[in-house]
Amino acid sequence: MLVRRLLVIGGATALIVALIAWYVTGYLMVSPATVSAQNANLTLQTVAGLGNGYSEPTWVSYLVKDKNGTWQHSTNFTVPAHTLIHVTVYQYDGASGLRNPFLGRVQGVEGNVMQLDGKTVASIDPSLASHTFAIPAFHLVVPLEGIADNAKNTCGQAPCGLDKAHRTITFSFRTGAPGRFRWQCFVPCAAGFIYGFGGPMQTIGYMDGFLTVV
Ligand SMILES: [Cu+2]
Questions:
Q1: Residue 61 Cα to ligand 1 middle (Å)
Q2: What digits encode the pLDDT tens for the residues 58-89?
Q3: Cβ contacts of residue 140 below 8 Å, gap of 6+?
Q4: 159 Cα to the center of ligand 1, angstroms
């Protein structure tokens, strides 16, 4: 009787320990798939929220287009080394504003300018920034201007189509030697989180990720 009780307790304890270990490793290991740039073109979009159909939190996020032209909810990108990378960002979110106005200046890209809806621009009003695409190791910062507060036809369901209100931002930057580099947004765009810097701002797959140069 005692032996049986000990076996049951031991078994239950082992099961609970295994479940906790599975939960913790699952939490630590989970990372979105890596998407490769196509012919040195990286196409991204930023959305105010993912909307329906996603199992993960539907926070403000970046998405990336894969080789089949399908939008993936990922922020891990692979690009070729020693190559001029052309980036297009379709920006569907409203402005939150930068805490550090210095980040409203385009830096670390070809010509230190971007094309904002077809116009060559070296900086934006920091209070109009919705997100940034920044790779600190490259001293690269591109501020992404928000859509107008009164914009019609805003996108509530990712991936967003070009028929929805958006800004189009393009820029190019040159990669060097292979390596793995962190990139991130610097706009406190995490609505509902303390100082706007929690949740999506500190989760790979949303407002930060890795650029792998191969
Ligand atoms: Cu952001």
A1: 7
A2: 999 999 999 999 999 999 999 999 999 999 99
A3: 107, 108, 109, 133, 134, 173
A4: 16
